[in-house]
Fold each of these.
Amino acid sequence: MRITVIGSGYVGTTTAIVLASLNHQVIGADIDTSKISKLKKGILPFVEPGLNDLLSEMLKTGRLNFTDNIVTAIQESDVIYIAVGTPSREDGTADLRYLQAVADRIAGAINGYKVIVVKSTVPVGTNRWLSDYLSDKIGNPKLFDVVSNPEFLREGSAMYDTLHPDRTVLGGMSGHAIEILKEIYQPLGSKVLITDWETAELIKYASNSFLATKVSFINEMCRIAERAGANVVEVAQGMGMDVRIGAKFLNAGIGYGGSCFPKDVKALIATARELGVELKILEAVETVNRTQPLFYLKKLVQTLRETVDKPWIVALLGLTFKPNTDDQRESPAIRIVEELLPDCQEIRIIDPTIEFPDQTPWPDERKVVVCKTVEEAFSAADAAILCTEWEMFAKINWEEAVRCMRNPILLDGRNFYNPEQLRAAGIRYLALGRGNST
Ligand SMILES: NC(=O)c1ccc[n+]([C@@H]2O[C@H](COP(=O)([O-])OP(=O)(O)OC[C@H]3O[C@@H](n4cnc5c(N)ncnc54)[C@H](O)[C@@H]3O)[C@@H](O)[C@H]2O)c1
Ligand SMILES: O=c1ccn([C@@H]2O[C@H](COP(=O)(O)OP(=O)(O)O[C@H]3O[C@H](CO)[C@@H](O)[C@H](O)[C@H]3O)[C@@H](O)[C@H]2O)c(=O)[nH]1
């Protein structure tokens, strides 16, 4: 199959590379010329384990190409994937301007029958709108079919998830187009759910919203555990043993971030409002998540106030919204830095994806320092905060850290460490909801 993937971000690039690995002839297209020139050279413009090697391999086969010429890319393929961003607007609704721009390009370039596959996360009603919009612009509805094919990959395991999806959801009105998509995905052997546009769109938002609900739910349990002297890690363990509940997405912490959960929960609330439905559970999920980083931080600030005068030096371990990605979008660590900054002499960030201050949201803030080593970050620090559970932070020698720090206090924002081990090393260990002693 000749396939074009429009949008070469996290989703589009992963999709293009994996489709090439399934023996399709694939063009990745983007208006961002710097991304395209990197990709052509075999350089992934973002961090994603394993994907760079597969990119190089696929480029060598000649089955994968990248271009910034969107028109030619459309004309040379029979199946066109749309994987552009759908960010939040101020009011929480999804901004569909990039999708509309791609629709205009397709309408202007179409030169034969195309299956148009919407991979971007789009609100209920968008695939139907796209089909009507293209019909109007092209003037011949027989020249294309639109299929909703939402993406469920996670950053940090994008390649694995794309090669081993739990399910493939295909929504649409054309049996012919759906058969083509089934054929494309057939080598993956995943379960396929065939449905209509609106259901496919809602499956994507409902899935992300449900996972976000699990996270906010356990974060609320964490707040109770904190007051009651219970251990939320064991509460999650005990809950997760019930197969009806499941053990995943029950890690309490500073809250969820990323380019998906925050935006998709907001967009679903906004869609529901437009439809006259109030989503009370999701509104609460958002509120809990918004307040969660500060709930944690309060505990550290209280301890610091009792221990040492301001301004403080704080080492911040991890700025990305989760490990194994360079994505900082909506990272709760950013909220923490912004909240702490006025009280600090320095915030020293250490993150394996960050080398320079211009890779942080504060390129000109002299109080934000990017460190290359843990020792540098800990030197004379009054406290450390673990925001992202990168593997490198599991290897910290805490005895040495205690010797380096002015005040060996650690706030564990992901309940990542073993409290006994850290206390034995001499750290004043703070977590949330891990029993009376933390
Ligand atoms: N990132 C994820 O983990 C993930 C997972 C599942 C679904 N999604 C959804 O997939 C979509 C894409 O997300 P992403 O994280 O890959 O976004 P991204 O911001 O990384 O990439 C989007 C790309 O689209 C390009 N683009 C914008 N307008 C264009 C145009 N007119 N023509 C060609 N290219 C254009 C941009 O230059 C950019 O490279 C979003 O709807 C998102 O919600 C993301
Ligand atoms: O028990 C948990 C699990 C996750 N998180 C946080 O939740 C956020 C999201 O994590 P994760 O879902 O692993 O990352 P994403 O890459 O954002 O993936 C989500 O969003 C994608 C974009 O829509 C979907 O495709 C995926 O299925 C969905 O998991 C991160 O900040 C995590 O730290 C927790 O706090 N506790």
Amino acid sequence: MTIPRALTIAGSDSGGGAGIQADLKTFQELGVFGMSALTAITAQNTQTVTGIYELSEEAVGRQIDAVVEDIGVDAVKTGMIASISIMEVIADKVRQHRLSPLVIDPVMISKSGAALLDQPARQALKQTLLPLATLVTPNLHEAEVIVNRSLSTSQERMDAAKQILDMGASAVIIKGGHTEDEEAVDLFYDGEEFHTFSAPRYHTPHTHGTGCTFSAALAASLAKGESMYKAVETAKQFITKAISHSLNIGKGHGPTNHWAYNRYSKD
Ligand SMILES: Nc1ncnc2c1ncn2[C@@H]1O[C@H](COP(=O)(O)OP(=O)(O)O)[C@@H](O)[C@H]1O
Ligand SMILES: Cc1ncc(COP(=O)(O)OP(=O)(O)O)c(N)n1
């Protein structure tokens, strides 16, 4: 039996709802062996981020080398990257080890408002990491930063998706968590066709870690050999279930429920 293996290169969320913790929980629920390379440690809960402690470039690089050279990796995702120097190490390691498929979640700001990627790195992303992406998963705000304009209409989002592929990514999904629409509609483009993936929008404050969980589910599904289209379908079902059963934990935005996809599959 082959065991699918996925690596997350991301930051730690001490509150357990986002970052490495959300990724590993998601990998586990989807039957994938999870590994991690930490980029930064955040002191974080459901209300706020009170500290960010970046790891050295050497520490990031060595974690990636260690798991790739021994265990092997069937899919990789990146989350919080923090700075340009860490981004450059990740890009070097992706090239050196030919890491693929690569899901890039271009995390910039937490829901509580903390900067998880510094300003210069937000621009560097376009040259450094996007050209290596099998799939990049910006939310609306991140897509606007990448193309440097506001994206109010679906036509503007389609044009932005094309522009992101022109930057070198193989496919993009612009997530619809932050729109006013009645449904949560994600726009997928792979250079050939546009697809939308829709689900009911849940009016809950407990959405901490939605983007991390979604991109981790994508990486896990790709690690299992699912096609890109099927992986997006699986990830959308996983995150929708996790939001519909989200957890009222802490005093702020509680986390999504990583066990809901398996435990409440009949709802
Ligand atoms: N309130 C919601 N109800 C249903 N789906 C949601 C809701 N908020 C986000 N989603 C979905 O969760 C996934 C992550 O999207 P989003 O929240 O935009 O990412 P991020 O955490 O990066 O801001 C997407 O599939 C999006 O459509
Ligand atoms: C350590 C860490 N990484 C990423 C995030 C952002 O996660 P996201 O899924 O976008 O969720 P919110 O922060 O928007 O709730 C994070 N908070 N911490």
Amino acid sequence: MSNDRVRIYDLSRDLNLDNKSVLELCDRLNVSYKTCSSTITEDEADRIRQAAQNRPSTPRPIPRAEARPSTPAPKPKEAPAPKNKELQIRSYTYRQSEEEEALPSLEAPLRREAPRPSQPAARPLRPELRPQRPTLRPADAPVQRPATPTSPTTIPRRPAVALPSEPAVPALKAPRSRSEPTPEPSTVEVVLFPPKAKPDSKAPAKRKTREQELADEEKMNKLNANLKGKRRHRGREVEVEEEEDTEVNIDLLESEPTSEVPDEGNSTASMYLMRPPKPKSTTTPTTVKPNRPQTSRPRRGEPVSRTLDTAARTPSKPELLELTGSLTVQQLAEQLAVHDTEVIKTLFLKGKMVTVTQALDMATIELVCQELGVEVIIHTIEASSSARKETEMLEATDLDNLHHRPPVVTVMGHVDHGKTTLLDAIRKTRVAQGEAGGITQHIGAYHVDVPHEDSTKRIVFLDTPGHEAFTAMRARGAKVTDVAILVVAADDGVRPQTIEAIRHAQAAQVPIIVAINKIDKDGAQPDRVKTELMTYALVAEEYGGDTIMVPVSALKGHNLETLLEMIVLVSEVTDLYANPDRPAKGTVIEAHLDRARGPVATLLVQNGTLRVGDPLVAGAVFAKVRAMVNDQGQRLEAAPPSSAVEVWGLTEVPTAGDEFEVYGEEKQARALAQERAQLERTRQLTNRQISLGTFSQQAQEGKLKELNLILKADVQGSVEAIVNSLKQLPQQEVQLGILLSAPGEVTETDVDLAAASGAVIIGFNTTLASGARKAADIAGVDIREYNIIYKLLEDIQGAMEGLLEPELVEEPLGQAEVRAVFTLSKGVVAGCYVQSGKLQRNCHVRLHRGNQVVWQGTLESLRRVKDDVREVAAGYECGVSCSDFQAWQENDQIEAFLRVTQRRKLT
Ligand SMILES: Nc1nc2c(ncn2[C@@H]2O[C@H](COP(=O)(O)OP(=O)(O)OP(=O)(O)O)[C@@H](O)[C@H]2O)c(=O)[nH]1
């Protein structure tokens, strides 16, 4: 970095301004930058300093705590405290159109964030204000600029669509702007509040009638459904989004009461729509979408018509297959223009037994395609949508009371690259040392308070394990995270789980900060890491990209402050809001059965505040929060947004990754949990019937041996990880039957089940309930206990190999040459000289004459001089005879060997 350049955040500090204000000045003065940590020239810095001096209002923004007290005071009707920038600006725009004189009072909150006197008063939200967060943009992604408003004379066909003039939502609005011109703000106001005032429009809009509330509720349901659909379809055809958006806006337009004017915040539904998508750090670079021919190929879930069926079975196999979802065996066969049995056979040879109607996951489809030589492109809409951030748990009603919340940061990376040590160094405790086998085995959540400028910023860290078996857990980490820290060891570079972590973060569309760790080591090559990461669309700032990469040493504590500062900077430009004054909603991060406390879950509160005594439903599990403990082991009464807390009081162990929500009434929560549990049971039963059916068919065919297992582990995450790893073991000849897998200790019931089904019980990081060991001894049930996943997998593989029929192999013994032939009364004796190894009585021999094997059999009699001996070593002469072979000749070569059985390996 040359000396005549200045970092933006240093400049902010010098000017006593926050980064956002300086970035705005950069925008205004046409100074290009990528992130707050980008550098600019001295000349540009001078221009910014000049402009900053000319700013009329206070140089520093009002501290958030001041601006937004945690217990909100009754808001003055004229100037409600703005919730976020777009809310401020939108109120401002409405005002401006309705009453010009109302402007001065509404400008105040706007200036609080970024006073810009030179700005024309009537100007709507400046595009620079919101989405211009280049740090979070992938290197190759186009800068998201708002659609330029078209001529004001163009009246939009659907007025509500006029909302896109707001530039903060490029992702939602860009598609529409192609087909429908975006009106100017003045048009927005006219159409947003049409003059079809309802009878009660004159009445104060504060209190809604029950009907209005119900209508609003329905409206929000539609909105949410549409938004969800939108997320799911993002990246697919634009038309889908357009349809959905349009539908939402029509609903809004039709049902929004005229009386509910902006100053009451009743345009919340529109604003909800208008909430910009979270900044996208990267686009997934993996799938290059080719021009997709408009074929009538059935999509997932669509019935396959007879015509299609016939058409698909054309003799020529496609070269390329594009998929967006799973297919049944039959559907895949149709797509590949092969017979069903071809797919079944291919999978059988790979160790998977499938039926024609069985749905195949993407990995299996890829495997089949690979085997059949067909290239496959998977548009991972499902995968990415499931991993897509679920941090936005906001509802329309929340928009009246949004507060900043701390960022949730996930630390990801390859095994042993130093994730735990890094987190450990950050929170200055020694977690890594206590882990069995040195591997982080379940997700942890920790709060860290970072001093930043004059205040303290809280960051919530989620630690996810690096072993490849923990893929599901990492996906979960990315799902709830706001920022991903990718730890890459400088001496090891980019490894398989590094790539996987990048994919998860990119699918979840979260900004990635790279921590290049272990720079203290001799072989450290941070530049090589930067170069390697370019392949995955992560380009360091000094290489012209916008990914922040911080070289650190977790062990020595080097550069950790810079890393934390970068996390704070990135989260500052990412709008993170929640409404603390509502019942909590969030995600189960981890869950396990504790002997003393019963089922315990780590919950991440993403919206609202969780309180002791709250009734909640997590997936299909009911809980009445009995106690809450934070990562420091302190009891809490209330957990605000972005808190990770351990909660007691659950009726069962919930599944990690499930969402939870607090309900107003315990009865309602219990009923919902019961309903979901019933559904889950039905689903499991159906699945089990299918797998048992498949299995017994194969068993009847005599092709399979089985090893039944009952798996109990400390936490749900470990159960998932182990089950996933076990599924990877080859099962062509020995089938693994996992009869039960659950978190908790090994109980007598487990032993009974194992005894009845001939299963082995595997306990991972768990204990045995009283009586379980005795019951196992009596019933002869094998209970194996482990705390390292590798060891467990090794042993299971060993046990499976033990079930294989051993194979018979030849073990060479020695060689001898026939030097004389003696015909005696008892038969013919070959006088031999042992050249190498040895000859043994009763060993197997092969007799070579020239290039031919003239006889093969057992060596019955072995003599030295006149004595019968068991063996004769190399360098000695001996007499050999066999009852069923007499035709020895001089110079015959005897090859002696043993036949031994050898244990087979799984292939
Ligand atoms: N020299 C050096 N060693 C480090 C550094 N960071 C971590 N290590 C070492 O690397 C090893 C692995 O560190 P962990 O923190 O357990 O790695 P991890 O990525 O959390 O591993 P998993 O929990 O298995 O996913 C340990 O022996 C650490 O002491 C570092 O900055 N420098």
Amino acid sequence: MPETPAEWKGWEEKRIQEEIISKQGISIRRRPPTGPPTHACGPFDFKLQNEGNTPRNILEEIVWNTEREVTEMKEKTPLGALHKALPAVDPPRDFIGALKARKAETGLPGLIAEVKKASPSKGVIQPDFDPVRIARGYERGGAACLSGSFENLKAIREAGVQCPLLCKEFIIDAWQLYYARIKGADAVLLIAAVLPDQDLLYMTKITKALKMAALVEVHNAVEMDRVLRLPGIQMIGINNRNLENFEVDITNTESLLQGVRSGIIREKEILVVAESGLSTPDDIALVQNAGVSAVLVGESLVKQDDPAAGIASLFGKDVSRAAQKNETIFV
Ligand SMILES: O=C(O)c1ccccc1NCC(=O)[C@H](O)[C@H](O)COP(=O)(O)O
């Protein structure tokens, strides 16, 4: 129990924070509650598993690792250095505009194609991983936007790919928003299962100040309703993957868009993106009929040797810009 007034104050603040987090249905703890998952025991060289401090699921483990990584990255490149570097970076591209424009051109949801070698649930998906080759293929095949990690984004932008870029890192600290911009991001992913409302609001404001877009990701009805109550949200991603057990159910998109929610989304002019588990034209039709304007697709595309052909088979037709031009000429 706390003893000094300062300890009591810290204890009280932590309790209030925990109350807010549990009210908002946030299942992911930002850091181990009382220290690292294992601790040394006595003078001997062995460790005891500290059960309470073991991550409860893979997302929690990722968040705890990210917390350590970000602390180290901030030491190497403090916020002041990022501020100084900002003016030399190319201005952000219009991420939401690109998705809407592709949808208007093709009649199909705008595609955010994910550049990734591996995923937490499947491990390595594309052993012959060359981010620039894949990004060029996606652009040629008709993707509106691309997504990837800090390092992949930088390589893709420097190679001259024009599509707007989504930073698909696990964001837990506002510092990462500046870092993403420096690496060429035009949009960032904010996960409602990880970030309480206060953080979502603060981070969406910084994202806007940096002239980027925020894709706020939800997995369930509680998160969706929380995010719909927040002001200033322009884009919501509905993830069809259950974060606890990795099971994918693409009807999650449809379920979360039913009832009054679709009215609120229309009224607030929020662009909705369906995420995870999409691999066929039928899947695309299902989420499009549910009301989404864009899709985020990773595994089913990245595992193909020809990413452009992968996009055509995902949509059941050639949605490349070249095909679109020909259609316009011959109509
Ligand atoms: O993909 C995973 O295994 C995963 C596990 C835990 C947290 C997040 C995870 N993925 C992030 C994503 O959102 C997907 O990469 C994205 O929606 C694309 O999904 P897919 O088309 O199924 O690769």
